[in-house]
Amino acid sequence: MGGTAGEILSIKFENVSYIYDRKTPFEKEAVSNISFEIKEDEPIAILGRTGSGKSTILQLMNGIIKPTIGMVEVDGIQTSDKASIVEVRKKIGLVFQYPEHQFFAENIYEEIAFGPRNFGMNETDIRKLIMDSIMIVGLRPDILSRSPFALSGGEQRKVAIASIISCDPKYLIFDEPTSSLDPVSAKKFFDMLKVFQSRGKSTVMVTHSVEEAITHFKKLLVISDGKIVFYGNSDGLLNEEALESWGLMPPPMMRVISKVKKECGNLYRLKEKIYSTDSDKFSDIVFRETKK
């Protein structure tokens, strides 16, 4: 991937605010004066508790909603420009948290074909895109004649992803993609993300799981009460108290290290391992915290 000299290749928010139900008694500011830029080939996780403004950011990226104040650009195209919104949506593939809410077709083939047809692709190319898409997400061709509503939650998630990647978007955006997945299925999802990235796709994932975010992404954006409270490399997000103040659960190992520092003391590091002179208390803390 890559553009011509001078071409802007990023998703950019500039002083963006969004207000739901504006000028009504139910008016609520979901995001407030936020600015950031997601550059091409820069996978990023957006972290925040429920109601923090994460999903609003995704809808602003895709042009589903327009900023009340400020500007959102996708590769230099403003999402508020009605004449260019189709081009924006070709670039942005958004998979919602509940994929079954996106389905409408009688069978999976027609479900996945809808997007490419809507963008004017011919049927031969559409079939190739469908077969490629289901191969990437791990679905068999014989599933294409089935109803998407007859599938398991995990299979529905795969169909939803296939229906997005069949449109060949540049940016793939996932809203809480592992929320209903078991650990094995979640691992398969992150393996799939690596395939997307190897094919030149930029990936954005919204999640409330700090552990998933710091494990699979180098760049993080944390939003709390509609404001950006952290934006940078994942190794900088190591403050347990800050995470808790933002309504996020610190990962088990972070809790272990914090508790050990408070209760054991006399810690030392040897060959990338942490040791304590109070081994009994150390073991007890590790057992307690990893069981939470």
From TrEMBL:
Keyword Transmembrane: no
Bilayer topology: Peripheral membrane protein
Cellular-component GO terms for this entry: ATP-binding cassette (ABC) transporter complex
UniProt cross-references to CDD domains, sorted A to Z: ABC_cobalt_CbiO_domain1
Domain of life: Bacteria
Keyword field contains Nucleotide-binding: yes
Molecular functions (GO terms): ATP binding; ATP hydrolysis activity; ATPase-coupled transmembrane transporter activity
Residue span(s) of domain ABC transporter: 11-250
Subcellular location, record wording: Cell membrane
Pfam families for this protein: ABC_tran
Stated family: Belongs to the ABC transporter superfamily.
Name listed for the protein in its UniProt record: Energy-coupling factor transporter ATPase
